[in-house]
Amino acid sequence: MEKSYNDRLFSGHGLRSWLHSSRFLWLKKILKIYAVNYTSIIELGCYDGKSINYLPYPPKQYTGYDANWEKGLDVFKEIWKNKYFYQVYSCSSIDEFNPTKEIFDLAICMETLEHVPRKDIPIYLNKLANSCNLYTIITVPNEIGILFFFKHIFKLFLHYFLPSKRLKPY
User: Fold this and answer.
1) Domain match, 37 and 87 both
2) Which of 62, 77, 103, 150 could be bridged to 86 by S-S, CB 3.0 to 4.6 A?
3) What pTM does this model have?
């Protein structure tokens, strides 16, 4: 049986788990340091809503958008089924990212923009900014040095030697 996205990235105590968990720990730390006050959150690239678990306190309202790779939105709906004001929407193109007319206190987009076609990034950012009135937190992978080198070599290996695992171009 193939491991789920969360199992691959977050299970165990290895370097990979630590690296992927660190972005959520960073989010929690930043929100506490700056005493960010929010009641409503919009998140682009929410997957299963893992970021909610790392917030200093739960929002009253949460709206997430995700491409639903590996059925992350189904996982979200199961985890948060008792939270009526927590909604998620499938979004795999700019046309599907239509935040409601409501304005949110906090916008989050972590490790997502690298999966978006470059020409659409300004449109996504504009829509996200227009849906938020207080705070916006955006992160992108910062892979430099030896980590970047090994990841690049690994991707080349997958692309050329394992055709069934070819990576999708941006």
Assistant:
1) yes
2) 62
3) 0.78
Three-class SS of the chain: CCCCHHHHHHCCCCHHHHHHHHHHHHHHHHHHHCCCCCCEEEEECCCCCHHHHHCCCCCCEEEEEECCHHHHHHHHHHHCCCCCCEEEEECCCHHHCCCCCCCEEEEEEECCHHHCCHHHHHHHHHHHHHCEEEEEEEECCCCCHHHHHHHHHHHHHHHHHCHHHCCCCC
Q: Are residues 48 and 112 in the same domain?
A: yes
Same domain membership, residue 157 and residue 119 = no
What is the total count of domains within the chain? 2
Considering the domain architecture, whether residues 103 and 149 belong to the same structural domain is answered as: no
Residue 154 lies in domain: 144-170
CA angle 144, 27, 106 (to 5 degrees): 120
Residue type, 96: E
Amino acid, res. 152: H
Structure token pair of residue 13: 């105590």
Question: What tens digit of pLDDT does each residue of 150-167 get?
Answer: 666 766 666 665 554 444
> For the chain, what percent of residues have pLDDT higher than 70?
72
Asked whether residue 14 falls in the same domain as residue 91, the answer is yes
12 and 51 part of one domain = yes
